[in-house]
Amino acid sequence: MKALVYDQYSVDDDFSKILKIKDIPIPEPKSNEVIIKVETAALNYDDIWGMRGKPLAIPLPHISGTDAAGEVTAIGSDVKNIKVGDRVVSHGNMSCRVCKLCTSGREFDCKKRTIWGFETGPLWGGYCEFTHLPEVNVVKIPEGVSYDQAAAASMTLLTSWHMLVGRAKIQPGQIVLIMGGSSGVGNYGIQIAKLFGCTVIATASPDKLDKLLELGADYAVDHRKEDWHKEVRSITKKIPKPLGDVPGVDVIFEHIGGSHWNKELTLLNYGGTIVTTGATTGYDAETDLRHIFFKGINILGSTQGTRAELEQGLYWMSQGKIKSVIDSVYSLEQAADAHTKMLKGKGLFGKILIKPRS
């Protein structure tokens, strides 16, 4: 079968130097595994980290790809709930399933957790014609959801759902600020907040603001402006609040970090919540503690989510309440261009997909 393989790291982000199409054997399932004929896979930023060999030196030779959707073609002898012919999508959070954290519903905090297609290998990811996963790491795709929609949702919908529903526990009527709404997680964050009956303010670069509104955001703000937070504050003062509550943001969906951090804290209501899953503009943010203790702010970390949360998100996708936004589709042979586009981000809105076969 064809697979997208690299056996050395990239020191200059010229991914064309290391990414090669190779012919490798089709995998055989272990007793607890299923074999998937991959129809679509989706890019994630951990692909970049893998090719750089930083912050983790991942196994070589390597096949990336954490989000893959396709048809089951074979199953192991101990597989109980998945059958040949099922349409499935990967749940890339691989945990031990038996420790105290896993059995208490916190598989994302498992000390032995690895991310499939990033930390696994050698030669174990989704950018190939056939792949293999434990039964517990695949989810059936509901009727009405395409392979493309499911692959795009695998990690990012899961992450967004866990942030807002699992961690921040959003409630109808809240004002939710979605930072970086044009990203994959931001796209889903907007839709999840609207699904829960929230008023949504979303941020992005100026060329993407109209698309945020089309996706469902009530207001869109250019976060590249120095005083973007003042515009958000002005918007909150115009939004009617029940029972005379002080205008302000109730929940902030954060994955940008850097210089935005303290500005975000100033926008939160008393008892408000900021939930963060990343720091694309810098992780070493200074915090003005007065914003936290004086207003009783909740700061929550979040990473990935549970298999059940992915199933919940896909259910609402099957009901037409959530959709995956697809930016572009590439072949395996075009993978270097696809990853370069993701890295640069220029004009990018939504997820980039890779098709293992034309």
Automatic annotation (TrEMBL):
CDD domains: Zn_ADH_like1. Gene3D superfamilies: Medium-chain alcohol dehydrogenases, catalytic domain, NAD(P)-binding Rossmann-like Domain. Residues 17-354 form the Enoyl reductase (ER) domain. It comes from the Archaea. The keyword Isomerase does not apply. GO terms for molecular function: oxidoreductase activity. This is Zn-dependent oxidoreductase. It comes from Nitrosopumilus oxyclinae.
